[in-house]
Amino acid sequence: MPKIAKKRKQALAAVDRTKAYPLSDATKLVKQISTTKFDASVDLSIRLGVDPRKANQMVRGTVTLPHGTGKTMRVLVICTPDKEAEAKEAGADFVGSDEFINKIKEGWTDVDVIITTPSMMGKVGALGKVLGPRGLMPNPKTGTVTMDVGKAVKDAKGGKIDFKVDKAGIIHASVGKVSFDADKLAENANELLQTILKLKPSSAKGAYMRSVYISSTMSASLQIETKTLA
Question: Which of 39, 150, 212, 219 has CB 3.0 to 4.6 Å from 90, enough for a Cys bridge?
């Protein structure tokens, strides 16, 4: 049996599919059962008791993970010339205006976050067909349409992530890498979960956080006990 297949079989044997694990145990176990040769992402899937088709039950927001995401974020700032130095000093990877708008029109999207100023949103908004499906459209609610571009760049580089419930009522978000200490993964995950709990819509009926699963890239998923989170 190939080494990877053997490791995978052992990893699956370590998971009790009938059990919901405390968060601290789940982060330790997800590290143990990861069999990829690369530093895999660790992700949460959170099923909420909301109807995302109703505007008053849409759950979305941002959170700054205390230990970052483990990912190097490539940040583009589209701004007027007077804001370029501020963006560069804060660590933006790309800074400019019309030259990047034209590149995006031609299909270039080799970035993780786009930040812009309110005055540029007229031009950036016209790129919706390219940026929207990739989750790159700047939005005032997530702090990516702002005059304070320096802070927005530092936030994006420092572990700030956006999350949004999908059509099925699930939030998918990465909370780090397998190489992170289990305690740091747990703290990142808890920060995200506590933020989502605070955003519970008043119109949502019944159980709000219905299930939470943690997994790494290509690993089995583990259910997390939700009673201890609230």
Answer: 150
Between CA 42 and CA 32 the distance in angstroms is 12
* Residue 12: per-residue pLDDT: 60
Token pair of 211 as six digits: 């299930």
In DSSP terms, 41 is beta-bridged to 177
Cα gap 15→129, rounded to integer Å: 42
In degrees, to the nearest 5, what angle opens at C-alpha 171 toward C-alphas 186 and 190?
A: 20
Asked whether 206 and 49 are in contact (CB, 8 A), the reply is yes
Question: Does this model's pTM top 0.85?
Answer: no
| Stated length of the chain | 230
Question: Mean pLDDT, consecutive 10-residue segments, the chain of 230 residues?
Answer: 56 71 93 88 96 91 91 94 96 96 94 95 93 91 93 91 92 95 96 95 90 90 83
**142 vs 162: CA distance, rounded Å:** 7
**CA 208, CA 26: separation in Å to the nearest integer?**
21
Helix (H, G, I), strand (E, B) or coil at 209: strand
Q: Within 13 Å of residue 132, how many CA atoms lie on the same side as its CB?
A: 5
Distance of CA 126 to the CA centre of its chain: 25
**Residues in a beta bridge with 164:** 60
